[in-house]
Design brief:
Helices cover 59% and strands 4% of the residues. A hairpin with a 5-residue loop joins strand 1 and strand 2.
């Protein structure tokens, strides 16, 4: 009787493990593919300063430094009816410093490195 009981418990454990594994897989699939997170959700960055960290003698250990990240979304460009040409790139290159509020020479230096 105990041998049958062990087989029953082993089958029950296997079934519970399979159900839990399937639930985790289904949740991961749902979040990854069915409910794609919009990129704009992450682009709303707070403009508030994070604060300066000081040591015991009030010397600055960490300070705020502005940083910029610009990227090209290939899906938007490939779905666009316009082709990217040299003239479009030059317009973007001329407009980008104004949008980012940085010096054009600084942008040129950043792009060349």
């Amino acid at each position: 009787m105990s041998n049958n009981n062990q087989k029953y418990r082993l089958k029950l454990l296997f079934i519970l493990f399979f159900i839990c594994s399937f639930a985790v897989f289904a949740k991961n699939f749902n979040l990854s593919f069915l409910k794609k997170i919009d990129r704009d959700t992450f682009s709303n960055v707070s403009k508030k300063p994070r604060g300066i960290i000081y040591d015991s003698k009030m010397r600055e250990l960490a300070i705020n430094v502005p940083a910029y990240t610009v990227y090209l979304d290939k899906e938007v460009v490939s779905n666009s009816s316009e082709m990217i040409t040299i003239s479009n790139v030059s317009v973007i290159y001329e407009t980008l410093p104004t949008i980012l509020n940085i010096d054009p020479k600084e942008l040129e230096f950043s792009l060349s490195h």
